[in-house]
From TrEMBL:
<keyword id="KW-0012">Acyltransferase</keyword>
<protein>
    <submittedName>
        <fullName>Acyltransferase</fullName>
    </submittedName>
</protein>
<dbReference type="InterPro" id="IPR051159">
    <property type="entry name" value="Hexapeptide_acetyltransf"/>
</dbReference>
<dbReference type="GO" id="GO:0008374">
    <property type="term" value="F:O-acyltransferase activity"/>
</dbReference>
<dbReference type="InterPro" id="IPR011004">
    <property type="entry name" value="Trimer_LpxA-like_sf"/>
</dbReference>
<comment type="similarity">
    <text>Belongs to the transferase hexapeptide repeat family.</text>
</comment>
<keyword id="KW-0808">Transferase</keyword>
<dbReference type="GO" id="GO:0005829">
    <property type="term" value="C:cytosol"/>
</dbReference>
Amino acid sequence: MAKQLVLGRDAIIGSLTVIKGLSRLELGDGARLGNLNWITAVPANSADFFKHLPQRDPSLTIGREAAITHRHLIDCTGGVTIGAFATFAGWHSQIISHSFDFRAARQDAAPIRVGEFAFVGSRCTLLKGSSLPDRSMIGAGSVYELDDTGPLGLYRGNPAERVGDLPEDLEYFRRTSGFIS
């Protein structure tokens, strides 16, 4: 469960999705959170972890007309934002916003952002502190840990690298309403 839930007009949360430990879950107008997702976070008031991050916000924000499809694992310990019209697609992808810092011998967390009109394929992993640029795409099976290298990028691999540029005139980037099913 989330301490605060904000649902925009026509926003949908699918069945059998587990949500726990979040400070806030927000879905913009027309946003979709599909079925069978596992959405978790280490709660903000956890006394044993993340003392060095007093401003940490374990939340999930899904922008207007954006979608997280089905059967994904999303760790919101550091906070996760999915931009307007973005699609976290396919299945079995992961967002992991916290990890172990071996140098400091402690857990660490950082926000993750998926930009507006971005597209994430099946079985991708996005790691803490990463930011997928607006109007960019990441290919299936990729492990992404970059921090916003500019819009209109095509990324793939492990670790993911920018392998090309996307044309600005793709219809996917021009949508004004609705998740593409």
